[in-house]
Amino acid sequence: MPATKNNPVSEAHIRRRLAGTRLPADPLHFDLQVALKRWPKALLEKYASQLQPAGVLVPIIVRDDAMSILLTQRAAGLSQHAGQVSFPGGRMEAGDADVRATALRETWEEIGIEPHLVDVAGYLETAPTVSGYVVTPVIGFVAGGFRLKIDRSEVEQVFEVPLDFLLQAGNVQMTERELDGFRMPVAEFHYAERRVWGATANILVRFLEKLTQ
Predict the structure, then answer these.
(1) Which of 61, 70, 187, 207 would you label with 14, given CA atoms 20 to 30 Å apart?
(2) pLDDT tens for residues 125-177?
(3) What is the rounded (10 degree) CA torsion for 206, 197, 25, 10?
(4) What dihedral angle (degrees, nearest 10) is formed by the CA atoms of 190, 130, 202, 53?
(5) How many domains does the chain have?
(6) pLDDT over 70 (residue 201)
(7) Angle formed at CA 36 by CA 31 and CA 38, multiple of 5 degrees
């Protein structure tokens, strides 16, 4: 159900829809049948042996009665996805207790939001990405008033997109991209001259579906 001024999606509603979601026991496991709806089988098989576990935080910023999703624009000098919009997060490391710890650690390192400031509400299903990861999205509420400390070697800018905007019908566009000769569906959002696409947009679409279906 799309959000409106008279019928917004509340924090309580988000918590209810995420209740019961669990951190994956195996961060490399994903639902093959779900993945095949987006990935051609031959392409998925090609990448399957190279996948690594990763976690990202989907930070919901709560201020008064409004909520927004915090996103980062990656630094231009990075070897992967330079300049693209992403969630804070990254590859799981040996010292991480689990992939939730990965998402919180990476968020702290990249933009300075400390783990104790994030109230984790739940998780989305793991999914493979074309960059070679199986990503677990961790959904967490962050109270307004935090201070950012941006690692400029990884992040160029941080910005927020109102949750109401993401929920409005028509603000998501479906396109395609080509990879190794295969066509794959890709979601896109355009907000304030920023293009949110690829794995980040697909995670947003899955999150919004969780809230509205």
Answers:
(1) 187
(2) 999 988 889 999 999 999 888 899 999 999 999 999 999 999 998 999 988 87
(3) -40
(4) -130
(5) 1
(6) yes
(7) 110
Tally of CB atoms within 10 A around 6: 5
Amino acid at 135: V
- Residue found under tokens 């794995």: 199
CA gap 27, 35 in Å, rounded: 15
Evaluate whether residue 1 is within a structural domain.
no
The domain of 88 spans 11-163+198-212
In the structure encoding, which two tokens stand for residue 137, read together? 């999205």
Q: What are the residue ranges of helices labelled H in 112-184?
A: 163-167
Q: Tell me if 168 is assigned to some domain.
A: no
pTM: 0.91
> Within 10 Å of residue 102's Cβ, how many Cβ atoms?
25
User: Looking at the domain assignment, is residue 100 inside a domain?
Assistant: yes
pLDDT of residue 184: 79
CATH code, 156:
3.90.79.10
Lowest-pLDDT range of 72-86, 102-116, 137-151, 182-196: 72-86
In a domain, 181, yes or no: no
pLDDT band at residue 82 using 50, 70 and 90 as cut-offs = low
CB-count burial class (<10 Å; 0-12, 13-18, 19+) for 22: exposed
pLDDT at 5: 43
Bridge partners of 54? 91, 135
